[in-house]
C-alpha cells in the first residue's frame, strides 16, 4: 500500500451525463466502514466507491442492470475513505456559542457547520447547556434540522444538556437555572423547552423524581435520552435504560466515580440487567485531557461497540492559542487546553473531532476501523440513522471523509459532493 | 496443438495472461474492430485474471475494445448471489478493468425462457463475428464449461441438468445445504467453443493429470469432452508440472523441447503504451 501524502488527484474521464455517477477510484486504496454484508467491526478493504445522486451505489448492479460506466472518475491516491464523522455533542466553536440567545443563532450554527468540515464532520448535534426557558424558546426554533452540503455539516437535531440535571454534578452548568419535573413531569419539560421538534438528544439526571415517565414520553417521540450530570446509582440508571434511555453523556465526567459495590452509571457498560437487544452507547471526550488514557482503555475494553467519540467543544474551538473573550468569560487557549484566563482551571474541550479520533486510536491501540467507527457508525446507530449515515454501505448517504494513513483529513464529501479539501484551505 | 508445460500454477497463469495480452494487442482492436474473448469461471483462471488486471493497471493493456462471452451460469440463483458467475466475473475481473459493460455477455440463468436465452447467446456470438480466443478450464472429469461426461461434442448453448457429483461438490459453496445448490445451468456447447478461432485450456494440479492425459493422449471421446479439441485447428493447453503426471515421458519431453519456440509467443511481451517506454514495474515470474 503506497503511502500517499499528496492530495487526491481528480480527473474527469468522460463527459457528464445525468444522473451523474461518480466513481472514486481507489485502486491503490481502501474504503472503510461497516458494509457489504460484513459483520462489524469491519476491516478496511480495497474497493472503489461509487456515488449517484448523493448515495452510495452498488456498482455491480450498475454494471449488469444498466450496463453503464461512471461519468467521472476521481483518483483518491490510495487514501482511506471512511464514513463522515458525526459529533453528537458540541456546544459551539470558532467564537460561536450555541447557548447564547442572540437574534441570529442560525448564522452562528452555520459558521460552525462550515468550519467543522475541515475536521471530517459531516453531521452534528448542536448542544445547548443549561439555560433559562426564555433562551430555549428563543434559540430552539432557530436551529432546525438541516441537510449538509457545501454550506456545512448537516444538523441532525439539537442536543439539550440540562437543565434537568443534578445540582451536585452540574459541572459548569449555572446552578440558578437547574430545574426538576417533579410537579408535572413531561408538561414541565415542554414548558421549559417549548416545542421539541428539532430536538434529537436530551441529557438528564435519572434520579430526579418522575424521570421514568419523562424518559418514556421522550423516547416515544423519537428523542434519544442520555444519562449525565447525575448522582444516579446503577439501579436507577438501569431503570432509566429499561424506560428507554440509550446514551451516557461524557462517560466518567459529571457522574459518580466507579465503585465496586455500586458502579453507578459507569456500570451500565457491563450491566446484565438492561435489554440485551438495545445497546448502550456512551459519549467520550478523547482529547487526551478530559479523560485519562487508562480510563479510555477501561471503557473501550469493557464495551467497544458503545463508544461514541464526542468533542463537547466550547466556543474556543478553532480560535488558536492566546486569550479570547467568550461571553462573560476570558479564556486562554494553549494547544488543546483551554483555561479560565489566569488560572489552571480547564474550561472545556477544544479538540476537533479528527484530533479525538487520532488520540483515541493512539491511546487505546485499537484498530483503525474501530477508531473510525467510534466517530461514525456508533453515533449513527445511537440516533437510529445507521441505514443512511455512519456507513459506506450501498444505499447510504455519500457522506464520507478522505484520510491519509495517519488519519489526517484530506477531503470531506457530503451527499457525494466535495465540500472541503486540504488544498482549498491552503494547508 | 500446443502443450505449454510450466513449473507451477502461478507460472501457467502468467503464461496464459501474457498470451492473451499479446493476442489482444497484435489484433489491434478499435471501435470498428473488437477482440472477442471467451471466458471461464472457477478457481483455475483466478491468477490469470489477476495478471490481466495488473497489465491493465500498468497501462499495458486495455479492454476498451474487447467483447467477452462467458461459458456458463447457474439457473435459478439470484444474479447477485455470491456464487453466481455474474458475481464471480464482477469481483474477479470486470470491476478491476476498463471494459464497457455493454460488451460483456453472461448467460441469464433467471431468464423466463431459458432456451430462448441460449439461442440469443449464440446469436450474439455470431453478431460479434465469432470468438477470437476462448479461454477455458476443465474439471477432473474432463468437462469443459458444463459439458459433463457424455455431452455431445457438437452441442450448442443449452440448458444442462447437473450431474449429482457436481451438485455434491458444489454444496460446500451453499452452506452444505443440498437443497440450495442449483441443479441446472446454462452452458455453451462443445460445438460453440469449437467454433472459436482459437482455444486455450488451462490445466493445473495433480488432480487434473488424468484429464489432461485423456484430453491429449487418448482418442476423441464424449466421456472426456475436452478431448474434442484434438480436432480444433488452433488449440493451446497450458499446464503445470503436476498436471503432466499421467502423460508419457515422451510426450512431455517432446513439448518441453518445443518450449524454445513456444516461448516466443509471449516474448517479446507487447504493450499498448508507446513504443520504447518501459512498463512501470517489472512483472513477477
Automatic annotation (TrEMBL), chain A:
Domain (Amidohydrolase-related): residue spans on this chain? 80-419
* Function, in words: Hydrolyzes the N-glycolyl group from N-glycolylglucosamine 6-phosphate (GlcNGc-6-P) in the N-glycolylneuraminic acid (Neu5Gc) degradation pathway.
Q: Which family does it belong to?
A: Belongs to the metallo-dependent hydrolases superfamily. NagA family.
Q: Give the metabolic or biological pathway.
A: Amino-sugar metabolism; N-acetylneuraminate degradation
List the top taxonomic levels of the source.
Eukaryota, Metazoa, Chordata, Craniata, Vertebrata
CDD domains membership:
NagA
Q: Which domain of life is it from?
A: Eukaryota
Q: What class of enzyme is it?
A: hydrolase
Give UniProt keywords alphabetically.
Carbohydrate metabolism, Hydrolase, Metal-binding
NCBIfam families the UniProt entry points to: nagA
Which InterPro entries does the entry mention? Amidohydro-rel, GlcNAc_6-P_deAcase, Metal-dep_hydrolase_composite, Metal_Hydrolase
EC numbers: 3.5.1.25
Write the protein's name: N-acetylglucosamine-6-phosphate deacetylase
Which reactions appear under catalytic activity for this entry?
N-acetyl-D-glucosamine 6-phosphate + H2O = D-glucosamine 6-phosphate + acetate
One Pfam family from the UniProt entry?
Amidohydro_1
From TrEMBL, chain B:
The organism's superkingdom is given as Eukaryota
Report the EC code(s) recorded for this entry: 3.5.99.6
**Pathway stated in the Swiss-Prot or TrEMBL entry:** Nucleotide-sugar biosynthesis; UDP-N-acetyl-alpha-D-glucosamine biosynthesis; alpha-D-glucosamine 6-phosphate from D-fructose 6-phosphate: step 1/1
All copies of domain Glucosamine/galactosamine-6-phosphate isomerase, residue ranges:
16-232
> Where does it localize?
Cytoplasm
Q: Which reaction does it catalyse?
A: alpha-D-glucosamine 6-phosphate + H2O = beta-D-fructose 6-phosphate + NH4(+)
Kindly indicate whether the keyword Hydrolase belongs to this entry.
yes
Q: What is its main location?
A: cytoplasm
Transmembrane regions listed in the UniProt entry: none
* Keywords in alphabetical order: Carbohydrate metabolism, Cytoplasm, Hydrolase, Isomerase, Phosphoprotein
The record's subunit annotation is:
Homohexamer.
Q: What does this protein do?
A: Catalyzes the reversible conversion of alpha-D-glucosamine 6-phosphate (GlcN-6P) into beta-D-fructose 6-phosphate (Fru-6P) and ammonium ion, a regulatory reaction step in de novo uridine diphosphate-N-acetyl-alpha-D-glucosamine (UDP-GlcNAc) biosynthesis via hexosamine pathway. Deamination is coupled to aldo-keto isomerization mediating the metabolic flux from UDP-GlcNAc toward Fru-6P. At high ammonium level can drive amination and isomerization of Fru-6P toward hexosamines and UDP-GlcNAc synthesis.
State the similarity comment: Belongs to the glucosamine/galactosamine-6-phosphate isomerase family.
Q: What is this protein called?
A: Glucosamine-6-phosphate isomerase
